[in-house]
Amino acid sequence: MRLYAAGPLFTAAERAWNEWFAGELRARGHDVILPQVEAARFITRGSIDFAGIFSMCIRQIREADAVVAVFDGTDVDSGTAFECGYAYAMGKPIIGVRTDLRSGGEENGVNAMLSRCCQQLVYVPAFNRGEELVDSVVAALSALKTAVAR
Fold first, then answer.
1. Is 83 exposed, middle or buried (0-12, 13-18, 19+ CB in 10 A)?
2. 7 in Cβ contact with 14 (< 8 Å)
């Protein structure tokens, strides 16, 4: 399945976690679009082409079969929220992922608008890496594939 990986990508730690997570999904047979890879070409010292990043992300969401969105943080990243709304409007299935130990919101710390646009919300309160998280996301994607095949 071709997946668009939505999530914050503003710090070195976020980008490293995204790379790890995408690698784990790829190792399990998924084709993962990681926006931060192509976004790097729109960022030069002292300049960011925001229009270019926006257009690239829209194109990549259109090319994906589904979106896997990271909902960590006290409030979900606004870009991730937009990407989920756009994917939802296009009829793309969304799997939400949350590892954050903080609670609040309607479902495991996630805003009702986001939790309800997801086919499934995977919540594994962990310290960001682990087989349980990846296995849970892969199971959600398998269920999604089965539902689409029917």
1. buried
2. yes
Q: Give bridge partners of residue 48 from the DSSP assignment.
A: 43
Q: Which residues of 105-119 are buried (b: 16+ CB within 10 A; e: fewer)?
A: bebbbbbeebbebbb
Residue matched to tokens 């095949």: 149
pLDDT of amino acid 18: 94
Q: Is the pLDDT of residue 42 over 80?
A: yes
Which of 80, 87, 88 has its CA nearest to residue 6? 80
Structure tokens at 108: 């495991």
More confident residue, 150 or 7: 7
> What gap in Å lies between CA 19 and CA 2, rounded to an integer?
16
- Give the distance from CA 51 to its chain's centroid: 21
Q: Identify the DSSP state of 42.
A: G
- By percentage, how much of the chain surpasses pLDDT 90? 66
Q: Domain map of the chain by residue range?
A: 2-149
CA 31 → CA 26, 48, 68, 102, distances in Å?
6, 27, 12, 30
CATH class of the region 2-149: alpha beta
